[in-house]
Amino acid sequence: MTQIHTAQESARGPRDRMGRALRDLRISVTDRCNFRCRYCMPREVFGPDFAFLPHEALLTFEEITTLARIFVTLGVRKLRLTGGEPLLRRDLEQLVRMLAAIPGVEEIALTTNGSLLTPAKAKALREAGLTRVTVSLDSLDDDVFMRMNDVHFPVQRVLAAIDAAAAAGLTPVKVNMVVKRGMNDHCVLDMARHFRGSGHILRFIEYMDVGTSNGWRMEDVVPAAEILEQIHRVWPLEAVPPRYPGEVATRYRYADGAGEIGVIASVTRPFCGGCTRARLSSDGQLYLCLFAAKGYDLRSLLRAGAAEDEIRTRVREIWEGRTDRYSEIRTAATRGLPKVEMSRIGG
Ligand code: SF4
């Protein structure tokens, strides 16, 4: 039964079963990537015979824009473009321009591995309306980084992409480092040292049991507390209050003024209570959690010619039924559950 909403409730936008609003939409524009990061797309699963989505299965830029417009009317203010590797999708700046024209959009961000972020591309994305970028970089040590991305892509080219983003004004540039014990946990201080005073914000991400193919084990997780302690011993840190409710990273600044870092501690400090994020896969499935087992098909509605109001009502119903809080209920039993692959919906 369709719930009757007061004008105020409609204006406020839907709340899920935990009272969480819908504020952020992460849009995956492709399930393909040119890296094979061990914690996301291990080569043994995503090998040469892996059946990626055919082009016609992908939402067109027009379809993505229509859905984004609907989500904005339900309260979304931040859009994030993800993948796979989003810059593999041709003419992405065209999509950015279309999204930037939607009234109510406050920010359009992009998460990328940097491999295709040249100065010209960064400039074109900025001019199209992109606000800022997050670049993934798991080590400054070429051997370690190449072992983690498994395509032998050099660190220098990712650092050049970060410079290109900053030069284009896509700031603050955030740099995401996934920390895995025995893989790159010995690189934490080097990364901190490199980005101190740079103006870029380095975030340390706890290794997560995303999807079902990365062989996740709890013993491979380096807790945020341990990472912070390692840094604090060398460069004292101070906690910084969140910019807004539901901010993903917990913020810290160097007491000596050398800038800010963050930790994203989904395993040891879950933050589901403030999670206002929805995720759209590149084939038009709506996911309510990074660790969701199933998505809701919006593409069929779109391609069947459903009116925007009808789709809006459907999205509102789906969100109002949301109870997801995987990180809060993660146990040995939940680890084996089927979960969508992160490369399908972005981080
Ligand atoms: S585990 Fe799911 S509900 Fe919790 S913060 Fe992450 S995406 Fe949100």
Nutshell version of this structure?
With 347 residues, this protein is of the alpha/beta class. The protein is built from 13 helices and twelve strands. It has one domain: TIM Barrel (Alpha-Beta Barrel).
Keywords:
347 residues, alpha/beta, TIM Barrel, 12-stranded mixed beta sheet, 13 helices, 12 strands, binds iron/sulfur cluster
Strand content: 15-25%
The biggest beta sheet, please?
A: 12 strands, mixed
Succession of helices and strands: HEHEHEHEHHEHEHEEEEEEHHHHH
Helix content: 25-40%
At the fold tier of CATH, the topology name is: TIM Barrel
Task: Give the distance, in angstroms, between the N- and C-terminal Cα atoms.
Answer: 33 Å
- How many helical stretches? 13
Strands of the widest sheet, in order across it, are 7-8-9-6-5-4-3-2-1-10-11-12
| Total E-strand runs | 12
Mean pLDDT: 95
Supply the number of structural domains: 1
Describe the secondary-structure layout:
Layout: H1 7-12, E1 24-28, H2 61-73, E2 78-82, H3 92-100, E3 107-112, H4 119-128, E4 132-136, H5 142-149, H6 155-167, E5 174-179, H7 188-195, E6 201-206, H8 224-234, E7 237-240, E8 250-254, E9 260-264, E10 277-280, E11 285-287, E12 296-297, H9 299-303, H10 308-320, H11 326-329, H12 332-335, H13 342-345
Parallel strand pairs: 1-2, 1-10, 2-3, 3-4, 4-5, 5-6, 6-9
Antiparallel strand pairs: 7-8, 8-9, 10-11, 11-12
Helix pairs in contact: 2-3, 2-10, 3-4, 4-6
